[in-house]
Fold:
Amino acid sequence: MRIAVLLPCYNEEQTIGAVIEDFRKELPDADIYVYDNNSKDRTSEVARQHGAIVKKEFRQGKGHVVRSMFRDIDADYYVMADGDRTYPARFVHQLLEPLKNQEANIVIGDRLSNGTYVEENKRKFHNLGNNMVRGLINFLYKSDLKDIMTGYRAFDRLFVKSMPVMSPGFEIETEMTIHTLDKRFMIKEIPIEYKDRPEGSESKLNTLSDGYKVLNKIFTLFKEYKPMLFFSFWSILFLVFGLIAGVPVIIEFWETGFIDKIPSAILAVGLVILSVLSFACGLILDTVAANFKKQFEWELNKIKQDMKVQDYES
Structure:
C-alpha cells in the first residue's frame, strides 16, 4: 500500500520541518513530497534536511502545485495538507480509514464542526467567507457539507487521476469539492482540530482577492456543470424585466389601438428575445454537459481498468 503525503509550500521555512516529522511519525512508510512554489526562504533546504522528496513548481499558485502533484505522483492513497502546521498529522489515520474501506473517494478534514477554526483563526471575514461558500454550494448541489475550503484532505487514486485541475490558486479546494459533488464521487467528512499559524508565520491568503476568486470559480463552475439551471435563471430574469417594460405598452395598445411608448416596446422585445436565447443556450449546453458526463464515466471506467492492470502487474 503506497501512501503519498502532499505538502504544497510557499515560504514555510519555519514550520515545514515539524510538519514532515509529524507525518513521518504517523506514517513511517509514506512518501512525503514537498512542492516548493517559488519560496524566497529556505523551505526546500529544510524539507530536504528532514528527508522529504522536494520538487519545484515555478507557476505561482496552489492550483498549479496541486495539478503537478496529481499528474506526477503515483500512489494508492494521497494525503494533502498545508506546510504551516495548522492541520495536526495525528488525524491522518481517520482520514485514510474510509478510503481503505472503500467508503469514500475523498475524505475532508472538517475544521468547522467542532468550532476550533472559529476559535483559532484570527483573520477577519474568513468565517463569513467559509459560511457563504458552504451555503452556496450546499444549495446548488443539495448537499450538507460542513467545510468546503479545508486544505486537509485524503484521496484515493481514482479521484486523483480523474480530477481535471483548472484553478491556478487557492480556489482549488472549492473546485475539488464541486467536482466531487457533480461527478458523484463518494465523499466523507472527518472532524479535526485546527491550530492557527505559529507566531512569525505569515498567511499567504488575501481575504478580499482570494474570496473574489473563489466566488468567481463557483460562478464559472455553476455555468459549466449546471447550465440549464444557470441560464434558466437569466432567462426568467430577462423575461420578468421584459414584462415590466412591456405590460404598459400592451395596455396602451389594448385601450387606444396605438403605441406611443416606442422605446419601452423596443426594450421589452429585446429583453424577451434575450430570455428566449438564454433558455435555448441552457437547453443546448445542458445536452453538451450530459454528454460530457457520459464521456467522463467512460473515462472513469477506463482508469479503473488501467488501475487493475497496474495492481496485477505489481
About this structure: The radius of gyration is 24 Å. The chain has a mean pLDDT of 88.
